[in-house]
Design a protein that fits this description.
Layout lengths: L12 H79 L6 E2 L4 E5 L2 E5 L1 E4 L3 E11 L1 H11 L2 H4 L7 E11 L3 H7 L3 E5 L5 E4 L8
Parallel strand pairs: 5-6, 6-7
Antiparallel strand pairs: 1-4, 2-3, 4-5, 7-8
C-alpha cells in the first residue's frame, strides 16, 4: 500500500482525553492572563485619570494665583508703550493722531488677529506687538498674522502699515532677528523709557 491510500490514524480515547485536558488548561491560562491584563489596564487607567486630575487642578491654582498678575503686567507694558511709541514715531516723521484703546481684535473665517497697540493717522498705521519676553517665533507669528491684516480690518486698506515689536526682554537675539525682518524694535532702558531700533529696510503692508 502506498502513502496516498494510507488511512489517517485515529487517536485513542486516552490520547483524545489528554488533548482535551491540555487544551482546557491552555484556555484557562489564556483567560487568566487576559484577566490580569484587564486588571492592569484598569489600574493604569485609574492612575492616569488621577494624575491628570491632579495636574489639571495644579494648573487651575497657578492660573488663579498668577494669571491675573501676568495679565496686569502685560497691560502695564502696553500702557507704557503707547505714549513712548507716539513720541518715537513722531521723531521718525510718522505723526500719529490716533491710538486705539485696548487690543484690536478681528476675525475672518477661522482666523483671528489681535493687535496689542495700533497707532495711525490718515495715511499710515503702526501695528505694535507687545511681549514680556520676545522669542524669534513671536516675530514669525506676528508677521504671519499681519499678512491678512487689511483683509480683516478693511478700514486700513488705504493706509501703509508698518510693524513694530515691543518687549521687556528679547531672548536669543530676537531683537536683531526682528530688525532683519523689517520690524521696528521698542526696548526699555533701565529707567523704563523705550528706545527704538530701526530696520535697514522696514516691512510694509
Amino acid at each position: 500500500m502506498n502513502d496516498s491510500t494510507r488511512q489517517p490514524l485515529t487517536p485513542s480515547w486516552s490520547e483524545l482525553h489528554a488533548m482535551i485536558l491540555a487544551t482546557s488548561e491552555q484556555m484557562k491560562e489564556t483567560d487568566r492572563r487576559i484577566k490580569e491584563m484587564q486588571e492592569m489596564h484598569q489600574e493604569t487607567g485609574r492612575y492616569l485619570k488621577e494624575t491628570y486630575e491632579k495636574t489639571e487642578q495644579q494648573i487651575k491654582e497657578i492660573n488663579k494665583n498668577y494669571g491675573g498678575f501676568t495679565n496686569e503686567f502685560g497691560k502695564m507694558i502696553e500702557d507704557l508703550c503707547k505714549p513712548a511709541a507716539l513720541e518715537i514715531f513722531k521723531k521718525e516723521g510718522i505723526g500719529i493722531d490716533h491710538i486705539y484703546e485696548g487690543p484690536r481684535h478681528g476675525r475672518k473665517e477661522e482666523e483671528e488677529i489681535e493687535v496689542d497697540v495700533l497707532l495711525c493717522n490718515k495715511t499710515v498705521a503702526v501695528a505694535v506687538e507687545v511681549k514680556t519676553t520676545c522669542f524669534k517665533k513671536d516675530v514669525d507669528y506676528f508677521l504671519k498674522q499681519m499678512k491678512r491684516f487689511k483683509e480683516i480690518f478693511h478700514e486700513f486698506e488705504g493706509k501703509t502699515i508698518y510693524l513694530a515689536i515691543a518687549a521687556m526682554r528679547f531672548a536669543n537675539g530676537s531683537d536683531k532677528y526682528a530688525l532683519r525682518s523689517g520690524l521696528y524694535v521698542l526696548s526699555p532702558l533701565s529707567d523704563g523709557i523705550f528706545t527704538l531700533g530701526k530696520p535697514n529696510k522696514r516691512k510694509e503692508f
